[in-house]
Amino acid sequence: MPQYQVATPQRTYSALIERSAITGLKGFIPSGCGRIFVVTTRDVWDLQGDRLRAALGGTAFEVLFFAGGEANKRISEVEQLAVQMVEAGADRSSLLIAFGGGIVTDITGFLAAIFMRGIPVIQIPTTLLAQVDAAIGGKTGVNLTVGKNLAGSFHQPLVVLIDPAVLGTLPEREYRAGLYEVIKAGIIVDAPLFRLFAERRTEVLAQVPEVVDHLIAEAVRIKAEVVSADEKESGLRRILNFGHTFGHALEAETRYTRFLHGEAVSWGMRAATYLADGLGMLPETDRAEILSVLDNYGPIPPLDGIPVASLQALLLHDKKTIQQRIHFVLPVKIGQVKVVADVPETRVQRAIERALADCQNV
Ligand code: GLY
Prior knowledge:
Elements: E1 3-7, E2 12-17, E3 36-40, H1 42-56, E4 62-65, H2 75-87, E5 95-100, H3 102-114, E6 121-125, H4 128-134, E7 139-144, E8 147-154, E9 159-162, H5 172-189, H6 191-199, H7 201-205, H8 209-229, H9 244-253, H10 261-278, H11 284-296, H12 308-314, E10 328-333, E11 336-340, H13 345-358
Parallel strand pairs: 2-9, 3-4, 3-5, 5-6
Antiparallel strand pairs: 1-2, 7-8, 10-11
Helix pairs in contact: 2-3, 3-4, 4-5, 4-8, 5-6, 5-8, 5-10, 9-10, 9-12, 10-11, 10-13, 12-13
This protein binds glycine.
């Protein structure tokens, strides 16, 4: 079983990847644990709830249903979940289990971070995107209308149980959205991982188990290494935001309703690639390779009617923007990125225009 340690000042824990990883859940419940609350969505529970129920065996637990959707990842929902917990008898000995995609792992992690000033959480991601990125590393939070994930906390889980078998019921669009985060991991630090997407496209899209498991394991390894080096994103961890600066602006501009997070990141990687190109930082061949892989795993929903100026304004709300200086994570070659500030606005505008032009409904 591939297993990677995430070692942070807050906690050292494992991200375990195995078909049937969920069956080991009980072994991670702390001794003296009080009431257990599973946060999930109705669709995930209907499709995969039996696995979790079986893993918990005779252990009592309550299920808290969250409406799902990026537009519902809001502070008001966290409050409602917390009230339901109190009404059901939760206290400081309670445990939360996040069972769902990245939206569920983010909101449940945040609920765990603030409920009675912090209780433990176990992350069981059920989408590819959450398995390779969102559930690992302790970033938790909710969206504000003005920007993605702008309220939140670092709260590391007890363990992340990654069971690729649950992806069997994942809609194809969600699967592809998750692939973009693995492509990101390749572009930022691992050229062979990136090139696998060009070389084994048919198997990747056909979800051949051996290939899927390899992609997940590699992305988790990379994420664990980066987070272990820089839990709170004071330096290296910023590279994980490749594609996210532009992507988050797109999600906020479209009120979190038009694009899955991974799709917005795909577009964001395109814009960042054009920006690096415009700044003369990226060899032409690497630019072409990145854009070709993004095209080959698309398309994402069309971006018609999105004003360049609105996206540009929203970039100022990115968490990497410090005192009005936007920090972009830009590729210098496949497998390496650089954080760049003080980019002329005209260059940013041109990169957005080029990326928007690629994604129109023709
Ligand atoms: N998803 C980016 C990070 O966890 O830092």
